[in-house]
Amino acid sequence: MTTHDIDVLAIGNALVDVIAIAEPAFLSDNSIPKGSMRLIGADDAERLYALLGSTREVSGGSAANTVAGIAAMGGKPKFVGRVAADQLGEVFAHDIRAAGVGFDTVPMVDGPPTGRCLIVVTPDGDRTMSTYLGACQELSEADIDAATVQASAVLYLEGYLWDPALPRAAMRKAIAISREAGRKVAFTLSDVFCVEGHRDDFITLLNGHVDIMFGNENEVCALYKTQNLDDAMAQLASHSTIAVVTRSEKGAVVLNKGERHVVPCHPATQVLDTTGAGDLFAAGFLSGFVAGRSLPDCARQGTIAAAEIIAHYGARPERDLRALVAATIG
Amino acid sequence: MTTHDIDVLAIGNALVDVIAIAEPAFLSDNSIPKGSMRLIGADDAERLYALLGSTREVSGGSAANTVAGIAAMGGKPKFVGRVAADQLGEVFAHDIRAAGVGFDTVPMVDGPPTGRCLIVVTPDGDRTMSTYLGACQELSEADIDAATVQASAVLYLEGYLWDPALPRAAMRKAIAISREAGRKVAFTLSDVFCVEGHRDDFITLLNGHVDIMFGNENEVCALYKTQNLDDAMAQLASHSTIAVVTRSEKGAVVLNKGERHVVPCHPATQVLDTTGAGDLFAAGFLSGFVAGRSLPDCARQGTIAAAEIIAHYGARPERDLRALVAATIG
User: Fold this and answer.
1) Hey, are the CB atoms on A316 and B49 less than 8 Å from each other?
2) Who contacts B105 (Cβ-Cβ below 8 Å, separation ≥6)?
3) Whether complex ipTM tops 0.90
């Protein structure tokens, strides 16, 4: 890869996670599908928060978690996303910088508050997310600095942020700049509801706009409207994009130009909270990719980072991921 | 005990804990004594926060943790303390109510923001706290409702809040009302720096104003300016107050009218973060006291609650304390 100042530039939601532990009955009582991610408005956010038990707040956001993981692997990432000029916005900005991630998107002064993701963790470690985007959706093209995109080896985008119009336009602009500069673009499908809302766009992205696509089993099946994972993977393999399919305890599959690499999951010390498993998988994978590792090794790094994150609450790494990778892969 | 609507009414700091993990060198580099609690101003709070790594936010406050623990033991507690009308204030109010604690102190609109406690946890589980009191110190006599104090079996006060003048006056008012109503008053020495700043006041409280006094070894030694715990305990025993001395892994000692009850510590599954150990000990003890248990059983309940809290980050209980007590004491 040619010289670059930034390993991975991520554009995503700048969210503070509000984590509560609850029994599955809490979800069914409130008609929330277990394991889902859904967007909610300010009123719903307030109503649901009032119903939740005691919470802990940890900075989150899917792509933000990924770049925090890349920094924990020794990389040089940067993040673009919008917070408000409020206490939760300060917490988000503090934490992402403290994690070693560049962050200079200007906080919004008049407008909605900093976005938050209400995460209900059930005793099986499953997480169910209700996200109030708030300031996140005010990210716009003006926040994309061309020179920064050009200086980044990989541009990484989260599907979650494809939903609101302004950030979608900002991501389209960034993709164009990155490709023009001969850089790589990576994208995560994020969630089934994102795929269902933007299926045509996402398939278009696979045709020449994105170099690496991440998705879990449910997401890639939703993309091709099939229940059959093999069908979905066959269709994914028809594009020139590197496709990375994550399969929880079954590990991951990497598809690239007719090749197919199957990598098992890495043993976790415990499964407390699966929030961020996909985000950290992407962190491990992209760290390896920027370092020029083989695709199977990229996937192995992904499984190591994912195993660390599910062993504790919160989706930002707490252990030295570089050391964990060195101990396993070398 | 006569009929009462509230088991324990606590008056204390309404703080959100900002928890960061760091090596001991971080403390020495910033001239912060390891294991200490100190008060800092807004500027210092901002400077120190900027130096800290990634954080998680969990509602805290010493007496607030205690009443959250009493609720987790099935009791009916209430809390009085001041937050600001800001996001961290909403988090505090949400969490303490979600824990089952009554809380209706009016948030402050114009004034300092909600107080926070920057907690550095070192790998040995020790916690070092730098507290910015913010809105906490604006609590005043007007916030003390006489009928509420009269309806509470025990009034519980934290020494930390004796420092700022307005809350001290509020606590003096509450003590007078409680005693007039024939209720019990409990007090925690909180910290060596509190004892050193208010030694004469605290000794006066022991002479007929407080029925139960909590303190750890360092605090009771500081109270009588001695290095010798036996000396300190002998002096404590000279007052008519029930004195409860907590000794970390050595358990606790209860002194009462010439009696001396020594109770060992309860085994913890792990020691991750000792924040809140003293607060939860008080929760267990007071829950037993209100239920009319013997003093040794009160202390045993205290050690069970303390063992739960040090096994995870954050000073609010995460397991069902009532079940833990039932399994051990019955």
Assistant:
1) no
2) B14, B79, B80, B81, B82, B83, B139, B143
3) no
A6-14+60-112+136-328: CATH number: 3.40.1190.20
Strand-strand pairing, B212-216 and B37-39: unpaired
Task: Measure CB to CB from residue A99 to each of B54, B99, B314 and give the nearest one.
Answer: B54
Q: Residue B45 to residues A46, B38, B138: CA-CA distances in angstroms?
A: 29, 11, 18
Predicted confidence (pLDDT) per residue in B60-114, tens digit: 999 999 999 999 999 999 999 999 999 999 999 999 999 999 999 999 999 999 9
Residues B16-37 have pLDDT tens digits of 999 999 999 999 999 999 988 8
- b/e code B112-132 from CB counts within 10 Å (16+ = b): bbbbbbbbbbbeebbbbbbbb
- What is the topology classification, in CATH, of domain B6-12+61-85+96-103+137-328? UDP-N-acetylmuramoyl-L-alanine:D-glutamate ligase (3.40.1190)
Q: Are A98 and B57 an interchain contact pair (Cβ–Cβ within 8 Å)? A: no
Residue among A55, A314, A318 minimizing CB distance to B94: A55
